[in-house]
Amino acid sequence: MLLLSASIAAQGRQGGAPPTARAAAPIDLTGTWVSVVTEDWRWRMRTPPKGDYASVPLNDAGTKMADTWDPAKGTAAGEQCRGYGAAAIMRVPGRIRISWDNDTTLKIETEAGTQTRLLNFVAPAQRGEPSWQGTSIANWQFAGGGRRGGGTSRGGSLRIITTNMRAGYLRKNGVPYSANARLTEYINRTTEANGDAWLVVTTMVEDPQNLTTRFVTSSHFKKVPDGSAWSPTSCSAS
Amino acid sequence: MNPVRSVVSAFFFFVIACTAVPASAQIDFSGEWAPRFWEDQPERVPGPELGDYLGIPISEAARQRADTWDASIQTLPEWQCRPHSADYIWRGPSNLRISKEVDPVSREITAFHAEWLRSVDRAIYLDGRPHPPADALHTWAGFSTAKWDGDMLTVTVTHLKEGYLRRNGLPRSDKATLIEHWIRNGDILTVMTIVTDPVYLTEPFVRTTDYELDLRQQVPPYPCGVVQEVDRKKGEIPSFLPGTNPYTTEFATRHKLPVDATRGGADTMYPDFLAKGRTQPIVPPTAPAAATSPPGIQTLPVRGNVYMLLGAGGNITVSVGRDGVLMVDAGRAQMTDQVLAAIRQLQGDLDLRDRPLGSGAETRSSVASRNTEPPAKPIRYIVDTSADPDHAGGNEKIRAAGRTFTGGNVAGNIADAGEGAAILAHENVLQRLLEPEAGEQKAPTDAQPTDTYYTDSMKLSHFFNGEGIQLIHQPSAHTEGDSLVWFRGSDIIAAGDIYSTVSYPVIDVKHGGTINGVIDGLNRILDLSVAEFRTEGGTLVIPGHGRLSDSADVAYYRDMVTIIRDRVQAMIEKGMTLDQVKAARPTSDYEPRYGASSGSWTTDMFVEAVYTTLGGGKKPAAAPAPARGRK
Fold it and tell me: CA dist B111 to B51, B123, B125, B144, Å?
């Protein structure tokens, strides 16, 4: 009964159909945002040298695979987008554009690699073939453990679970994640006194095939007034 | 069990369970958190490389300062036990423990406390208390208050000591403020830090750092003792002269990075940098606009019965107690009414009724007087740290408001000697007031020191308000008559104009001031000081102008003044003229913090004073003539 009560409260309605994900959003993530690269600069702002996998908890198998990286082969094989998959893309410098694709799907478009991520609040009937961006299931994490008083939101965050990805690179220099990797992300939004708005994206990659432990990073994006500087680029293997 | 009672109990349990959720059922951040170095591991654990300024929105002043930074400075005694500051420590290689403070009645969380391996206890208050006045002591942890934003905790940090943005000499000033957002996602803690620094940053510097809950973690003790790590001449401060650091491009070369990128700056944070290069020009450091102080006198408690009065010109230190009032400096003449009002307020706040333990006497019952307030004790001493009008200008009027107790086994009428407070100073102060330079006014008799000393120091011959007070002469520093005043029980040093937090030191060359005297004075303060913990607190230092400080603040200032002295000295040795030295801007990297282009003490005046008192501009002495002795 307690669980049921909490669940109803979480939906923010007493009776009737639950609100759509869009209507229930406790925070507004939409708009154009630019990544601000104050961390891991030399591994993000350029393709790092082969063998430079500092900070990544690679296991032996992952290390061996990283040491075989050959960007020319990747290009020849049409695999240029390996460094732009869901497990890596939020760490690749560039602007992102977030919008509602429909009432239950949030869309993230990236300049880097011209990728599109669809965050489904309702699980798709079919997962489809593995892809760079995989299949993402999203849900809102309401502040206060889901309790919302008086019908007003007290904030929250977005949680995204992504699987069904094609094997890719955590870094463009061949630091691998496998097709079995599972990605968990949390997106929070802040608004500062000077008017700046920021997204904080916490990314957790679980991939026992290549990693000794979870690989956790957090990236931040600053909201930009408009999309006028939007300039998508294609994937590049090097 | 009675089935009816059972159902009723279950119902009440349900109701309580549903309604007992606190209005603010926020995330609990307390616990043991292990740092995970999945970002910037080479920078954070082994340490950053010299010349790596990538991705930090530094100003040109910060860049210049880092370029002249010598890692050996960390072997100085004043540097050895410093912890990371609140903004950097999240990024440092250390375990974290967060504990919570709970009000026993309301059971609300009133504070979180964060501690790392080598840190001070950092309290983050949630009880709504205000931040201290701007001129209160700054610390490594700063002063933090927080509020909930949903499940996110937003922390505001002020009162930070100078720190660093990266452990390779990139400075963060004590003018900086910090906003933090604490976010907990299951067993991962993500903390966003936003540093705003008008001195060394051109844009807010934002980082996000992750910790993982670790139930078996223990933050071990970290005692730190200062040792003599390197034998060096007293007062020597390791630093590269501008343009001589051979290591600034080593990082770029080693990692095959564009040198321009490694020089940092706001442009380098944005994805367009590599494609478009710099879009923001590098702006040479300039002095800040003149700061305006709030009108009137501000009173700041320092320790025990010692207070600091700000706003009267120079800072005034006041000891208030059973023996009366002792003031170090009297402020400007035109501020004396307000100064006296502030002192009266302090006297009024002092409860003189309750005798301290141990002072009671069977023959002197205090029962009868419990419902009356005894009169305030008089102002008895004024100590002049120098003869400057912003320090000694109020002498005459404040002296008149005070009283000296005289008497003893003497003959004649000594009543006149009891009129007014005594004024203590080095004899050179009296000399200057008696024989002013051309254009200066002779001080009235009642503004002149009544008791002077000419030796290295002078002690009050007895405790005053429970402690010994010592005047220490610092020759040829700000002037020729400077005194440091040391409250030996409270462990407070009133530094006069040898130390300031708002400008380069004022060197009054006309009245005997020299740069080396100032540096000696600053080192003397450091010699007298003992830090409380992790090189902060302990001995407190009241500057001639600016905010309350401790030895760590003085050490930063001493380093700055010494580094500038060494630069000017090197220029003099190259034969540079004063104009050439000024054009070379030897103070450039400190300019946004201490410089001034207008007002009574400009950067040019400071550089000129340094240059002159180091002997700049003098022709080398002619070779001595051969002796003409008899053959």
Answer: 39, 7, 4, 10
A111 domain-assigned: yes
Q: Does B16 touch chain A (CB under 8 A)?
A: no
Contact B150 A204 (CB under 8 A): no
Q: Which of A155, A139, A147 has its CA nearest to residue A9?
A: A147
Amino acid at B99: S
Give which of A61, A120, A132, A131 is closest to A92, Cα–Cα.
Answer: A132
Taking contacts as CB-CB distances below 8 angstroms, the residues of chain A near B39 are: 39-40, 55, 217-218
Residue B463 lies in a domain: yes
For residue B81, is it within any domain? yes
8 Å CB contact of A200 and B212:
no
Whether B114 has a pLDDT exceeding 90, the answer reads yes
Alpha-helix runs per DSSP H in B267-323: 273-276
Express each pLDDT in A135-185 by its tens digit. Answer: 999 999 999 876 544 444 579 999 999 999 999 999 999 999 999 999 999
Q: B307 is written with which tokens? A: 């207070």
pLDDT, tens digit, for every residue of B335-378?
A: 999 999 999 999 888 766 555 544 444 545 555 555 666 788 89
Residues B264 and B322 in one domain: no
Residue B575 within a domain = no
Average pLDDT, chain B: 90
Residues 120-149 of B with CB under 8 A from A: 149
Select from B199, B202, B195 the least CA-distant residue to B181: B195
How many other C-beta atoms are found inside a 10 Å radius of the C-beta of residue B188? 20
Using an 8 Å CB-CB cutoff, list chain B residues near A2.
Answer: 14, 17-18
Residues of B in contact with A215 (CB under 8 A): 38
- Residue carrying structure tokens 């996998």: A53
In a domain, B166, yes or no: yes
Radius of gyration of chain B (CA): 29
| Number of domains, chain A | 1
Report which residue type is found at B135: D
**CB nearest A217 (choices: B25, B39, B269):** B39
CATH number, domain with residue B433:
3.60.15.10
Within 8 A of B40 by CB-CB distance, chain A residues are 39-40, 55
Which of B17, B185, B269 is facing A36, going by the closest CB pair?
Answer: B269
Per-residue burial over B351-381, b = 16 or more CB atoms within 10 Å of its CB, e = otherwise: eeeeeeeeeeeeeeeeeeeeeeeeebbbbbb
Q: Rounded to 5 degrees, what angle do the CA atoms A71, A75, A78 make?
A: 135
Nearest CA among B321, B394, B314, B319 for reference residue B355? B321
Residue-wise pLDDT for B120-143, tens only, equals 899 999 999 999 999 999 999 999
How close are the terminal C-alpha atoms of chain A, in Å?
Answer: 56
Q: Which residue of chain A has the CA closest to B44?
A: A55
pTM reported for the whole predicted model: 0.92
Q: Report the pLDDT averaged over residues B508-528.
A: 97
Domain that holds residue A102: 29-145+154-224
B46 close contact with A: CB closer than 8 A: no
**Whether residue B483 sits in one domain with residue B427:** yes
DSSP per position, B159-189: -BPPEEEETTTEEE-TT-EEEEEEEEETTEE
